[in-house]
Structure to design on (546 residues):
């Protein structure tokens, strides 16, 4: 008996990285999946975008576990698209229990005064507005089920602490915490739990790229992955440079399962102790 | 394959309640157990003290799961006796991976009614006893190449609650202890976290609670502070154990210095 056997989970940003890992980990424990991803480039975002092939690979891996998955190309900035994809998934899979608002971008590093207006607006629209729209589309389904539910919002250590040169990202991720706490209050009477995850750097395409290497190593002209690892290790308390996507998924799995049935309003760091430093 | 298969866990206050539940839940997932409990009369409390028979029942239930358990009657305020029990258990079971510093007491009294005895007893058990637990176990975890320490604090370790001043002070102190140890032990891959229960359906969490009645009647404005956000009165011990299990397992290998509320939203209210 899987730890989320028979439940249905909606996951945004599911084409690769943490989102794909969440889909696979929940499917391993018995859940069916509704997956969306934009599968398109975001302007000025400094790494290769996820593709439709990536999303198809998530589908393949979930189906290899004998679980069902309904995957669509949808943008969390567009409520109608998002709602359409989710409604279709719920219609096909019959219910909704778990929501992982995971989709997000890193943006391009810049001093606060140098962030272009369009990049600021886009960041807030995806990393905060997208999370709100995800919850907004999902809440009616969770309520209609009458079984409660679990909403997990992906924030960041940057949702708890400041980091230089990414104030748009820090602001959006802090905003996610405010949203989580408010939703926890509003939805508790329906036994819908709302918590946030706060990863340190995770070994995914959003982190492993030249822009992030330069953000961590402004002292070097062409920093390598090893240069980044040295700086990233210094940021964490546990002696590791980054965590794996599955470590975030294991936290999400616990929050998604009934094992945490009385846990709501928690900011859960999976951060190798970066927060204590 | 259990989620803590092959690991060894040391648990204080294991005779009944949350401690017994932790022992059983970890054993269900493959761990062997070193258990201690005072198992003797505790003065000043409003609920029955755990007994040696209670501790024997924990042993019986763990052994019924085909796991090994070494149980000893120990007061965590007695460092030497605690160290002997830990060393003996680790000697027999071969190593130590998990520490659950769970033992604690709770006396309900308003500020005027909190005697020096109650203060010393509460801080001595809940805070100094927890420190003793860390002091006698940490080197075993380091020798084993890493491990997970889980300390039981409380919603009262995050926010103030009325008529529990010694308890609130002791449980806030546990958070300070956790944070300090988390910084020093990270380099050894020893993780240190706290759990923060709201009310739990145990002898301490139910039978003792009656003392709140007259105090809340006299101070009705404060009653809301004890309420949960989720529409439940009380959590079950297994809900706390499921949090302990996750923190004890390698699923949380990069989680340290976390205050994990299992409190039905009590601290958000």
């Amino acid at each position: 008996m899987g730890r989320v056997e028979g439940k249905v989970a909606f996951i945004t940003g599911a084409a690769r990285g943490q989102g794909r890992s969440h889909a696979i980990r929940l499917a391993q424990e018995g859940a069916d999946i509704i997956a969306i991803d934009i599968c398109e480039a975001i302007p000025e975002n400094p790494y290769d975008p996820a593709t439709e092939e990536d999303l198809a690979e998530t589908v393949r891996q979930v189906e290899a576990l004998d679980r069902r998955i309904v995957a669509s190309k949808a943008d969390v900035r567009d409520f109608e698209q998002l709602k359409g994809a989710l409604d279709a998934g719920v219609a096909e899979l019959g219910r909704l229990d778990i929501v992982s608002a995971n989709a997000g971008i890193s943006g391009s590093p810049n001093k606060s005064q140098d962030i272009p207006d369009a990049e600021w607006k886009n960041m807030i629209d995806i990393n905060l507005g997208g999370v709100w729209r995800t919850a907004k589309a999902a809440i009616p389904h969770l309520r209609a089920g009458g079984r409660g539910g679990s909403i997990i919002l992906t924030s960041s250590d940057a949702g708890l602490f400041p980091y230089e040169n990414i104030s748009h990202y820090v602001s959006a991720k802090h905003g996610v915490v405010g949203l989580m706490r408010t939703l926890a209050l509003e939805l508790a009477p329906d036994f819908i739990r709302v918590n946030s995850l706060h990863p340190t750097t995770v070994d995914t395409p959003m982190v492993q790229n030249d822009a992030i290497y330069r953000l961590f190593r402004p002292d070097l002209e062409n920093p390598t992955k090893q240069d980044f690892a040295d700086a990233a290790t210094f940021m964490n308390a546990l002696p590791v440079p980054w965590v794996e996507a599955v470590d975030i998924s294991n936290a999400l799995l616990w929050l998604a399962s009934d094992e945490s049935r009385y846990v709501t309003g928690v900011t859960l760091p999976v951060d190798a102790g970066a927060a204590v430093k | 394959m259990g989620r803590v298969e092959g690991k060894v866990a040391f648990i204080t206050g294991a005779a009944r309640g949350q401690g017994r539940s932790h022992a059983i839940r970890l054993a269900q997932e493959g761990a062997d157990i070193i258990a201690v409990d005072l198992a003797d009369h505790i003065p000043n409390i409003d609920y029955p003290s755990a007994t040696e028979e209670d501790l024997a029942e924990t042993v019986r239930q763990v052994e019924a799961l085909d796991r090994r358990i070494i149980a000893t009657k120990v007061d965590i305020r007695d460092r030497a006796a605690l160290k002997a029990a830990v060393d003996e258990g680790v000697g027999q079971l071969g190593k130590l991976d998990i520490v659950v510093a769970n033992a604690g007491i709770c006396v309900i009294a308003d500020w005027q009614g909190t005697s020096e005895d109650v203060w010393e007893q509460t801080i001595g058990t809940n805070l100094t006893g927890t420190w003793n637990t860390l002091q006698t176990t940490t080197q075993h975890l380091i020798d084993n190449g890493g491990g997970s320490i889980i300390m039981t604090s409380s919603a009262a370790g995050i926010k103030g609650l009325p008529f529990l001043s010694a308890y609130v002070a002791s449980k806030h102190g546990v958070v300070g202890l956790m944070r300090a140890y988390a910084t020093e032990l990270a380099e050894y891959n020893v993780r240190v976290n706290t759990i923060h229960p709201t009310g739990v359906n145990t002898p301490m969490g139910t039978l003792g609670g009656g003392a709140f009645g007259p105090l809340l009647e006299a101070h009705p404005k404060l009653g809301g502070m004890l309420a949960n956000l989720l529409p439940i009165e009380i959590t079950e011990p297994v809900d706390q154990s499921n949090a302990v299990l996750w923190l004890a397992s390698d699923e949380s290998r990069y989680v340290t210095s976390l205050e994990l509320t299992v409190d039905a939203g009590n601290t958000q209210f």
Remarks:
- The two ends of chain B are 39 Å apart (CA to CA).
- The mean pLDDT of chain B is 96.
